[in-house]
Each structure stands twice: as structure tokens, then as C-alpha cells.
Design a protein that fits this description.
Pfam families: EPSP_synthase (PF00275). This is UDP-N-acetylglucosamine 1-carboxyvinyltransferase. This protein is of the alpha+beta class. It is built from 13 helices and 23 strands. It has 2 domains: 3-19 and 233-429, Enolpyruvate transferase domain (UDP-n-acetylglucosamine1-carboxyvinyl-transferase, Chain), CATH 3.65.10; 22-230, UDP-n-acetylglucosamine1-carboxyvinyl-transferase, Chain (Alpha-beta prism). It is 29% helix and 26% strand. The strands form 6 sheets. The protein has a 4-stranded mixed sheet with strand order 21-22-1-23, with helices on one face. A 4-stranded mixed sheet has the order 2-14-16-15. Helix 1 runs parallel beside helix 6 (192-203), helix 4 (126-134) runs parallel beside helix 5 and helix 7 runs parallel beside helix 11. The longest helix has 14 residues, at 235-248. It is globular. The model is unreliable at 116-122 (pLDDT under 50).
Length: 430
């Protein structure tokens, strides 16, 4: 059990260069399987899932050079043998996005039935199966494996998703590049990391229309070019460091080259009386002495933070705003419209002395502003929840312990080093 000890109570101050978004890095790595041309990726974070993909590429026969200190990854898949076999890593959900490239390259891929990820509730793979079948693949069970096979290049397809799934959208786009003719997806996910994957694919030679919208068209591509690509900053991490400033009464600036993605995020900070400024490639939050939930003009309506697929507030950011709700004086309703298991951890907040009420699996009310105390809490395997607990602990005088805090490392290899530079005293016990 990994424990994180947090000795809080300081107003955090400083500047941070955030890492790249793992939700952009992983699909891009998977999409590189489409190409035999050399690929250079920069600002690659040293996280667990990247390590797993790196190891898998090596098992396939790819030539991969990873400079962890320089954060670069040089990839050449031309060395993969056509007779290579591919059983995908079980421990990460991103495995399923390697299937289009493997089908195009090897004609077969195997996936163990239980694919793991954050414990956010049921995540079916049926939408992915429908994508692969639409492009001519067969999908079947063989023992504990799900086996995907494709004998030849399929034709373009049109699909209307039941919900705007990020990974299903990404799998459709990657699959469409391996097909003949045009393909179109309706109700596509349009998160910044989906857009970033499309930008990378365009640099490889893909023709994609509509990225960042709910309707995306893709032309099949016969050949991909070499590309040198640098990942942009993770908007999740930018928002998280700004929230750390808010929750501790501090003053933090974070490098941010895409402030256009932050209009709604900024407005959500304003709901707690915290203001974000963007200037010269940086975003800054200089916190007020006391966070206060702002009253609606319609005064009998409780202030709400609703999380849903982009362009709503992302569900992955909801925990950090719940941390603000715990600290801010007043009541806030948080509504997770994506995951049915995304709020069950709220009981741990009571150990800090927080007052919360779970209305149903999707809605939580915080009654904030109470005096909080140090505590020992246990995080579920949800990255941003572990960080939300760290945020609250950072705002409290004394030492708190977060058990099972390892998910933080899964997405943010430098996160603890960064918060230490801001003034939080933290240490790991593995």
C-alpha cells in the first residue's frame, strides 16, 4: 500500500511547467503503429502507461529509444515482423486503442477480457467492438482472450455514437485511416486531447475535418510520413495547480499555451470566488483569503458544477472542484453525468471534518467552510481523487496521510516534486 504523507498549512506560491496530457500521449503512441516512418515525440511524461507501451513495442520488435531525462521518444515500427504476435497489456485501458494499428499491420490482436483503468464504474467495450466490425474486423472470445481479426483493408464507415466516448472516437478515427474512402462519426468526443491526437495524425499525413466538433470526417490514408511532434501542456494539470493555489490561499502561475480551452474552467473557479488570469503563455490564480460560494442571480437555486463530456467541465476535473467546495463557505451541488462510481469516495472527506451529502450516485452536495483537521484517508484508484485529497490535506495545518495514493504517479510523474517546490512538505512511503 502506497502512502503519501502531507504536512500542510502553507500558502502555496511559485511557477510550474506542467507535463503533457496522458490522455493525448497514450492514443498518439497507439496511433504510431499505423506508420513505418520514424517518429519523434517530445515532452513525453515518464508515467506507468507509457512504460507499458514502451515495453510492448519492444516485444513487438519496434525500435524505440526513450530518453527519459530529455522527455523524448523516438519510434520506428518498420522493424516489426509481419509474423509478430500481439497480446495487449492487460493493466491499462489504452490497450484497446492499439487494435486498429495492429489489425492493419498484423491482421490480428488479442486483448484479455478484463481491461483495467480508474475505478469509475462500468466501462463497456461494445462501442469499440462496433467500430472494429464496421471497418471489416471480426471479434470473438477465445478462452479468456477477446480476439480481433481482419483479413484485408475495409471500406469507409459512418457511425453515430450513443454517447460521446473519447476512446471510441479515437478508435474510430484511427480505424478510418486504415480504410478505403471516407468515414464519418457523429456525436464524436471533442476534448482537447482528442483534438491533439488529430493534430498529430494530420502531421503524419491524415486528412481530418471537424476536429473539436461533434461531427468528424476522415479520409483513408495509404502512407504516413515521418513526424516530429511536441505534446502541449495537460489542461487537467494546469487546472489542478490553479486549484491548489485557491484551496491553500496561495498564488501560483502555470505555463499554458492554450488558454482558449479555459473559458468554462475559469468560470467554474469564479463560482468559489477565485479568479484566473491568462497572460504571455501563463495562467495565474492569486487566491482570496477565504473561498466563498458565489450566489446565483436566481437566489433559490443551489450553485452547481456539472461534469459531462467536453465542452462541459470534464468529469476528471470534478474532484478538484469538490475540494474547493469543501473549503469554500456555502453550499455547492456537484453533478457527475459520466461515471456512476465517481463520487463514492466522498465518505473519506468526513475524516477531514468535511460535511457532504450524496444525493444519488451522480450528485453530491458540499456544505463548505467548516474547520478541517488532519486525517488518514484512503484513495480509490482514481487519479484526480487522490489529488483532491492531497489538495485538502495541503490546506490543513498538521500531517495527513493518503493511503493508496499511487494513482497520482500514473498521470503526473513530477507532481509531488512540483508541489514540494510550491511549499507543500510531502513524502512517499512505498
Amino acid at each position: 500500500m502506497t502512502a503519501l504523507y502531507v504536512r500542510g498549512g502553507q500558502k502555496l506560491q511559485g511557477k510550474i511547467d506542467p507535463s503533457a496530457n496522458k490522455n493525448a500521449v497514450l492514443p498518439v503512441l497507439c496511433a504510431t503503429l499505423l506508420s513505418d516512418a520514424p517518429i519523434m515525440l517530445r515532452n513525453v511524461p515518464e508515467i506507468t502507461d507509457v512504460q507499458r507501451i514502451h515495453a510492448f513495442f519492444g516485444e513487438l520488435g519496434s525500435t524505440v529509444e526513450w530518453d527519459k531525462q530529455g522527455k523524448t521518444l523516438r519510434i520506428d515500427h518498420s522493424t516489426i515482423s509481419p509474423s509478430a504476435k500481439a497480446t495487449l497489456p492487460q493493466a491499462m485501458r489504452a490497450s484497446i486503442m492499439m487494435i486498429p494499428g495492429l489489425l492493419a499491420r498484423l491482421g490480428e490482436a488479442r486483448l484479455e477480457h478484463e481491461v483495467k483503468g480508474c475505478t469509475l464504474g462500468a466501462r463497456e467495450i461494445d462501442p469499440h467492438v462496433k467500430v472494429f466490425e464496421a471497418f471489416g474486423a471480426t471479434v470473438s472470445y477465445e478462452g479468456k482472450d477477446i480476439v480481433f481479426r481482419k483479413k484485408q483493408r475495409g471500406d469507409g464507415a459512418r457511425m453515430w455514437l450513443e454517447y460521446a466516448s473519447v476512446t471510441t472516437t479515437e478508435n474510430f478515427i484511427i480505424s478510418a485511416l486504415t480504410a478505403n474512402g471516407s468515414s464519418q462519426i457523429v456525436n464524436a468526443a471533442c476534448e482537447p486531447h482528442v483534438q491533439e491526437m488529430c493534430t498529430f495524425l494530420e502531421k503524419m499525413g491524415a486528412r481530418i475535418k471537424g476536429k473539436g466538433t461533434s461531427m468528424v470526417s476522415v479520409e483513408g490514408c495509404e502512407e504516413f510520413t515521418s513526424v516530429d511532434y511536441t505534446f502541449v501542456e495537460d489542461f487537467h494539470e494546469i487546472a489542478t495547480f490553479l486549484a491548489l493555489a485557491a484551496v491553500t490561499g496561495g498564488d501560483i502561475s502555470v505555463r499554458n499555451t492554450r488558454p482558449e480551452d479555459f473559458m468554462l474552467i475559469d468560470r467554474t473557479f469564479e463560482k468559489f470566488g477565485a479568479h484566473v488570469e491568462h497572460a504571455d503563455g501563463w495562467s495565474r490564480l492569486n487566491a482570496p483569503d477565504q473561498l466563498v460560494v458565489q450566489q446565483n442571480f436566481t437566489s433559490h437555486i443551489t450553485t452547481k458544477v456539472e461534469a459531462a463530456p467536453w465542452p462541459y467541465i470534464p468529469a476528471d476535473l470534478l474532484p478538484i472542484f469538490i475540494a474547493l467546495g469543501v473549503k469554500a463557505k456555502g453550499q455547492t451541488m456537484f453533478w457527475n453525468k459520466v461515471y456512476e462510481g465517481g463520487l463514492t469516495w466522498h465518505t473519506e472527506l468526513s475524516l477531514f471534518g468535511a460535511h457532504t451529502l450524496l444525493c444519488d450516485p451522480h450528485r453530491l452536495i458540499t456544505f463548505g467552510g467548516d474547520t478541517l483537521r488532519p486525517a488518514t484517508v484512503t484513495s480509490p484508484y482514481i487519479i484526480r481523487v487522490a489529488i483532491a485529497m492531497l489538495m485538502i490535506a495541503s490546506s490543513i495545518d498538521g500531517e495527513s496521510t493518503i493511503l493508496d495514493a499511487d494513482p497520482i504517479r500514473r498521470a503526473h510523474p513530477d507532481f509531488v516534486k512540483n508541489i514540494d517546490s510550491l511549499g507543500v512538505d510531502v513524502s512517499w512511503d512505498d
